[in-house]
Amino acid sequence: MPKIIMHLKEQIIMQAEKLLVQEGPEKISIRGVAKACGIAVGTIYNYYPTKDALIADLILHRWSRSKDGMYRSLDGASDLMSGLDIIYEGIRQFTNTNQNIWRATAVSKQFSSSYPQHHKKLSEELSSLISYLLIKFPNERDRLYLKFGQEGLEAFISENILLCYSNKDIDIRLLKIALM
Questions:
Q1: CA within 20 to 30 Å of 112's CA: 20, 79, 122, 147, which one?
Q2: Distance of alpha carbon 91 from alpha carbon 111, whole angstroms
Q3: Whole-model pTM above 0.90?
Q4: Closest C-alpha among 72, 67, 83 to residue 140
Q5: Cα–Cα distance between 81 and 65 in angstroms, integer?
Q6: What is the pLDDT of residues 135-170, one digit of tens each?
């Protein structure tokens, strides 16, 4: 009779992250994660067809935690502009924390072919953070709705945050000036 392990996918991600921290992304393997979980290698393949798929899911889990941290930090924002700084800093920290994983694995190659899909998802998630911020500061929200219109404002701001982050020649201050 097969052994039933509760929350196995979460356990796999947790052990993969431990190995990632201890050994680095170059040395992580499906076999090593299976050993750390106390399961057969084939069991991991039931959840992840490749090491890249496992690492991609690990990065998504890390992004989720990072995003949750941004939401918590936004509670302390004193105004819209300080909230934009929190989001920008959250993206910077997430990127800096995970860049070694991207460089050491084929995940970046796998993601490059589906870049538009991942970019859209990231933009939508940032839009939800912006929406949260606009709800928190209704006077600033209403002022921006008058200036830019209500339709797509969150997407406009999130896309411009990404543009500021990805293009080092464009400073986040330019976006903040445009929003003033």
A1: 20
A2: 18
A3: no
A4: 83
A5: 23
A6: 999 999 999 999 988 888 998 998 888 888 887 788
Give the residue among 122, 120, 144, 117 at the shortest CA–CA distance from 133: 144
The answer to whether residues 54 and 12 touch, using CB atoms and an 8 Å cutoff, is: yes
Q: Measured between alpha carbons, how far is 134 from 6 in angstroms, rounded to an integer? A: 40
What are the residue ranges of helices labelled H in 24-114?
Answer: 30-37, 41-45, 51-74, 80-104, 107-113
The beta strands (E) that lie in the chain are given as: none
- C-alpha Rg value of the chain to the nearest Å: 20
User: DSSP label at 38?
Assistant: T
d(CA 127, CA 70): 13
3-class secondary structure, 144: helix
Complete DSSP assignment for 105-142: STHHHHHHHTHHHHHHHHHHHHHHHHHHHHHH-HHHHH
Please state the length of the chain. Answer: 180
Cβ(74)–Cβ(150) below 8 Å: no
Q: Which residue has the tokens 């069991």?
A: 43
Contact of 11 with 37, CB cutoff 8 Å: yes
Count Cβ atoms below 10 Å from residue 46 Cβ, excluding itself: 12
CB 80 within 8 A of CB 133: yes
